[in-house]
Design a protein that fits this description.
By secondary structure, the protein is an all-alpha fold. The protein has one domain. The protein contains eleven helices and no strands. The relative contact order is 0.17.
Length: 287
């Protein structure tokens, strides 16, 4: 369980880094303290249990996904199908966001929830192709085996398209940076519009948790796992995770937000063909 706690700490560090890049390094912590003291706001005829399920299940999905993430040879819950488990928890996050948007009985929240579902339909196929490409090259769905299969050459080097597609889909999974349309200002915050107090804090914690877990999974998939000079394997994994996480956090204020129709167009016309082609090239090489 230490690995899960480390990823939780990295999620907090990501929030702090986001504040620092905005010139307000202490702002995330002040906002967290404020939300803990703010009374929950409930809209008329809201489905409170449904909203709470959506809010709470988002960080739970991130924590469950973290169980199969290896730090070197250490993993909280080793699984031969770690890739499948990670992808399944990602789908749970879809339901979490939609439930949080639907349950508050608000047009803004509902629009945000449906935006995330549309975004999921756009990024999920190229995301799955990127995961399958790494698993195909390693002949395994076990994240530890995939990391060990990169001895001498990282998958990010000889399958750069799959790596790039994975990073894009990781940002979309956490509705982050160019893909934060589900919580966009044009719909008063979307899914977040009617969430307040502890509910909003827990939901945002889940968002940062997803970002941290997606960054950590990139390490065994494409960056050689815990392989590296001088440092032990269990330390190289969080170091590489920090590098990927910092890159994703940096994109938040550096890239424009994509409108949902344009995001879907890019996914279907660029990301899916590119990821399929990359997967075919890898299949030809390894078979």
């Amino acid at each position: 369980m230490v690995e899960v706690l480390v990823l939780g700490v990295l999620a907090v560090a990501a929030a702090a880094l986001g504040g620092a890049l905005a010139g307000r390094p202490a702002e995330p912590f002040r906002e967290a303290a404020r939300l803990l003291t703010v009374q929950r706001r409930v809209t008329a005829r809201a489905d409170v249990p449904l909203t709470r399920i959506g809010v709470v299940s988002l960080p739970v999905a991130a924590a469950l996904a973290a169980l199969v993430v290896p730090f070197g040879d250490r993993v909280a819950a080793g699984s031969r199908v770690g890739v499948v488990w990670f992808n399944a928890m990602e789908v749970v996050a879809w339901g979490s966001v939609w439930l949080a948007g639907w349950g508050v009985n608000s047009a803004f929240g509902l629009v945000g929830g449906y935006r995330f579902l549309a975004q999921g339909l756009a990024y999920e196929l190229p995301h799955m192709f990127a995961l399958i490409t790494a698993a195909l090259a390693a002949h395994s769905l076990d994240l530890r085996a995939i990391g060990q299969a990169q001895d001498g050459l990282w998958f990010a080097v000889w399958m750069p398209v799959a790596f790039a597609v994975y990073l894009v889909s990781a940002a979309a999974m956490a509705f982050w940076g160019p893909f934060d349309h589900p919580v966009g200002d044009d719909v008063a915050g979307g899914v977040l519009a009617e969430l307040s107090g502890p509910d909003r804090l827990v939901f945002l914690a889940g968002r940062y948790g997803l970002l941290a877990v997606a960054s950590a999974v990139a390490v065994p998939l494409f960056l050689g796992g815990g392989a590296g000079p001088l440092l032990p394997a269990w330390l190289w994994s969080p170091v590489k995770t920090c590098a990927v996480l910092a890159l994703l956090v940096w994109t938040r204020r550096r890239l424009p937000v994509l409108r949902m129709d344009r995001a879907m167009t890019v996914a279907w016309t660029v990301l899916i063909p590119a990821s399929v082609l990359q997967m075919l090239v890898v299949a030809i090489v390894v078979v």
